[in-house]
Design goal:
- The chain has about 500 residues and is mainly α.
- It has a single domain, classed as Up-down Bundle (Amino acid/polyamine transporter I).
- Helix content is about 65%, strand content about 0%.
- The chain has 15 helices and two strands.
- The protein has helices at about 45-55, 60-70, 75-100, 105-110, 115-145, 155-175, 175-205, 230-240, 260-285, 300-345, 365-385, 390-420, 425-450, 450-470, 480-485; strands at about 15, 20-25.
- It has a two-stranded antiparallel ribbon.
């Protein structure tokens, strides 16, 4: 069936605001959809959502591991990672400006390249969006068991069950309740980070317990250690630490003026999070300058205990459980539900995922499905491969996210540079050719480091997706209803 070439773009609708004419991102009818979700998110709301999704205190759980891998320069690793992932973030910004609709990379690749390729991108990132809540639930349950020594074995299951029920309930109620809880958790996290930085710097300036500590630039830069290999390793480690920024784009249909707000929110959230990452890891590194002997599992918490005693260590542990168990997972499930909603609405996944709650205006079926999947995955993995649950899920999440990001960068190049003809100025070449190319190269390098198991599982998932896509589209002949409506 021949299709109008402009279908992938959607017809542009404009509206005058003052003396400025802009694309009216709130008019999603221009993209073939009806407004079903409730708008109300502002720039500050989605920035908050983004930084909590990426987790303000995320470095605390992996600080020791990165210290050993980076010769004690964890802060520099995060700076390099921020620069590396920024190329992909700018791609999200460009696509969210042109296509301010829910669905994130699924919608962007669908509109930027082709609806069938868009399904593949959406299917791949499902590995990230559907499995990341399960990964985080396991992390929280492990910390809970560490917080309360000698807990019975079933307490692990209770930790997960309680958080799944709470987060699913909040997600069904809607983003208004979500953002209220986000603000509470945000204040708790910031207070914890500020307390650690103040106590830690005071400890270091005082010389530490033996008077040997001092403020240095070593955690930020050691010229003898920084080379191409270090940069490459840093990209591999830190790119994965910023996963979650893309979740902001799934809130486009619940955000005011999404054509401007979503892209700005992504970049502001990324910049804010890297500043907080660098500050707290710099202080932790100063407290333990002997990076070779930093504990890979609890290195950050060791730094907290050295500077502030057992009380500070336990406070940070509790804050991690609350922040990740509620805010991080809740926001992850919010993004995942919107992705399922978008794909269900288009009929490329079961349409039941596209159902919206009549009162709360949320994709309630998708939210319940995600809660159920998290329970099934965590409990099954716990009994089948106890101790290896996180390793397995991390591989799936990383494969899904990075492969879909590569498609996103290509979509930016294909849509703007090739189809839209934006290649007349130096700025066009930088934005629509150079930046996407760098994004693909960086992600490709990280991708090449995956082990054989990750590749095998990822490729099997891709093949299953191709089969599902073929069945749902009559062997890739049919297009979603939204595209058909654009022909009228």
């Amino acid at each position: 069936m021949a299709k109008n070439e402009n279908l992938n773009m959607g017809s542009k609708s404009t509206v005058n605001r003052g003396n400025t004419t802009v694309i009216d991102g709130e008019n999603i009818e221009q993209f073939g959809y009806k407004q079903e979700l409730r708008r109300g998110m502002t720039l500050k709301d989605i920035v908050l959502y983004g930084v909590l999704f990426m987790v303000i205190i995320a470095p605390q759980s992996i600080f020791g591991e990165i210290q050993q891998a980076s010769s004690g320069m964890t802060p520099l690793v995060y700076i390099v990672g921020f620069i590396a992932i920024s190329f992909t973030a700018m791609g999200y910004m460009r696509m969210s400006n042109r296509f301010p609709i829910a669905g994130s990379v699924y919608s962007y690749v669908q509109r930027g390249i082709n609806h069938h390729v868009g399904f593949v991108a959406g299917w791949l990132i499902l590995l990230d969006y559907v499995f990341v809540p399960a990964l985080l639930y396991i992390m929280v349950a492990n910390w809970g068991m560490e917080l309360i020594p000698n807990s019975p074995w079933w307490a692990w299951l209770v930790w997960i069950g309680a958080f799944v029920i709470f987060n699913t309930f909040v997600n069904i109620r809607g983003v208004q309740l979500t953002k209220g809880i986000d603000w509470i958790i945000f204040v708790i996290e910031i207070l914890a980070v500020v307390a650690f930085i103040c106590i830690g710097m005071s400890f270091v300036i005082g010389g530490g317990n033996d008077g040997t500590l001092a403020v240095t630039i070593d955690p930020l830069f050691k010229p003898e250690e920084v080379n191409f290999q270090f940069i490459a390793t840093a990209c591999s480690i830190a790119c994965l630490s910023f996963l979650g920024f893309d979740g902001i784009s799934t809130l486009a249909e619940e955000t005011v003026r999404p054509e401007k707000t979503i892209g700005r929110g992504i970049m502001i959230a990324l910049f804010a999070i890297v500043v907080v990452f660098v500050l707290q890891t710099y202080v932790a590194a100063l407290i333990q300058p002997d990076w070779k002997n930093t504990d890979a599992a609890v290195g950050f918490f060791d730094s907290a205990e050295i500077a502030g005693g057992t009380l500070l260590r336990n406070i940070l542990l509790v804050v991690n459980i609350v922040a990740i168990g509620i805010a991080n997972i809740m926001n992850a499930q919010t993004a995942s539900a919107r992705l399922l909603f978008s794909m269900g609405r288009d009929g490329v996944l079961p349409r039941v995922f596209g159902k919206v709650h009549s009162k709360f205006k949320t994709p309630w079926v998708a939210s319940i499905f995600l809660g159920a999947i998290s329970i099934i995955l965590t409990y099954s993995l716990h009994f089948a491969v106890q101790g290896e649950e996180m390793t397995i899920l991390v591989k799936l999440v990383n494969f899904g996210a990075l492969s879909s990001f590569i498609l996103l960068n290509f979509a930016v190049f294909w849509f703007f540079f090739i189809k839209d003809g934006k290649r007349t100025t130096a700025g066009d070449f930088i934005k629509y050719l150079v930046c996407p190319a760098f994004g693909i190269l960086i992600l490709g390098y990280v991708f090449s480091g995956f082990d054989m198991t990750t590749w095998l599982v990822g490729l099997v998932w891709l093949v299953i997706g191709l089969i599902v896509g073929a069945v749902k589209s009559n062997f890739y002949k049919e297009v979603p209803e939204a595209f058909k409506r654009l022909e009228v």
